[in-house]
From TrEMBL:
Residues 1-17 have a biased composition (Polar residues). Residues 25-36 have a biased composition (Basic and acidic residues). This is Pop1 N-terminal domain-containing protein. One of its GO terms (biological process) is tRNA 5'-leader removal.
Length: 364
């Protein structure tokens, strides 16, 4: 039995779904040309130049005009994308739906037409250009703003991209302005994320090794390795414990802490969360006073910066940024150069500390 299908129909059945959609969009946008054999106007036009009849000229091109109008109408329906949707995610603004001047200049006319179709009361407002008066002495102005809360070193970078909040005596970023979290998740799983943890309070205990150990043994977690453990006293590993009230273990917990010994074993650095800083400092002083120990306490909150890098490319990033000085006596620099081929820190023991003396990365 012979098939009644035309060659065009047979060819369409062989196309995939994506190819069919492309062919449909191509046909929508195609403006068919007029057939020369059907040109009625050629019979009425004289051989020499002269006046023409407008009605006859339009009737002769009526098929082309109708084809062009239908193609324009179908193409406008095919492009079902609003002006706001044509922008990338990073440039979309919620306020642009109320104030069209928030959009780029090339899209304002299209957005105004779309807004007018949805609401006849919408008007395009003129944007008032307001000059921002900058203070003459920026440093003095920034110091004035930090009277009630401290700024981190990365404050100017964060304040342009994050929502800032006042907490624990600092001005800290709470959440990003970008609504999408896909970029953050991608950086966390594939690249690297840097977190400015300089708000963590650093306390320095200076004195004899035994006195520092006795002072902390009465206020730290007895179920975890002591601060005087052999694994920590060399200064090549950071330790973690919990801080309690004086002789209050295990019920009177204050906060978790991190600590690091200097290789000389006469200085210990403690990192305490800022929300529990004053309470923790009070019980450290109480432990030293009741045992009559000679330990000096120094506040290093405004002197030490702390950055946390998270992600599989963290080590590779540090290898690119940090350039150790050429000093053969410095053991940390030699070790860092030996680890140059290391792409991930998973092979290192947790909490490892490497002391480096590097050149200023800004002078590269």
């Amino acid at each position: 039995m012979s098939s009644n299908k035309t060659p065009n129909e047979t060819q369409k059945e062989q196309l995939s779904g994506k190819q069919k959609r492309r062919e449909k969009n191509r046909q929508i946008r195609e403006i068919r040309s007029h057939n020369k054999t059907d040109n009625i106007l050629s019979q009425d036009i004289p051989n020499i130049s002269g006046p023409i009849d407008a009605s006859k000229f339009a009737m002769a091109r009526i098929s082309e005009i109708n084809s062009m109008q239908s193609a324009i109408k179908k193409a406008s329906y095919a492009l079902n994308e609003l002006a706001f949707q044509s922008l990338p995610r990073g440039l979309r603004r919620r306020t642009a739906s109320h104030n069209l001047n928030r959009l780029p200049a090339r899209l304002r006319a299209k957005a105004a037409k779309e807004t007018f179709q949805s609401s006849s009361n919408a008007t395009l407002k003129r944007k008032k250009v307001r000059k921002i008066k900058r203070p003459v002495k920026l440093v003095d102005e920034y110091l004035r703003r930090q009277k009630t809360k401290k700024w981190l070193e990365t404050h100017m970078w964060h304040t342009k991209r994050m929502k800032m909040t006042n907490i624990w005596g600092y001005r800290i970023a709470s959440k990003p302005n970008v609504k999408s979290s896909r970029i953050t998740y991608k950086s966390f799983t594939r690249l690297c994320i840097a977190h400015d943890a300089s708000y963590m309070a650093c306390v320095e205990l200076k004195g004899q090794f035994n006195d520092i150990g006795k002072a902390l043994n009465t206020i730290t977690d007895l179920g975890l390795p002591s601060v005087m453990s052999e694994r920590y006293i060399k200064g090549n590993r950071i330790g973690h414990s919990n801080l309690y009230e004086h002789l209050g273990y295990p019920t009177k917990l204050i906060c978790p802490i991190s600590f690091l010994w200097k290789p000389s074993n006469d200085v210990l650095w403690l990192w305490i969360h800022p929300s529990a800083y004053h309470e923790a400092l009070q019980f450290i002083q109480q432990s030293i006073h009741e045992q009559q120990l000679t330990v000096e306490i120094n506040d290093l909150r405004q002197e030490i910066l702390r950055f946390e890098l998270i992600g599989p490319r963290s080590t590779a990033l540090l290898q690119t940024v940090l350039d150790p000085v050429s000093d053969e006596k410095h053991e940390g620099n030699k070790l860092w150069k030996d680890l140059k081929s290391l792409r991930s820190s998973c092979s290192l023991s947790p909490g490892s500390v490497i002391g480096l003396l590097v050149n200023d990365p800004r002078l590269k």
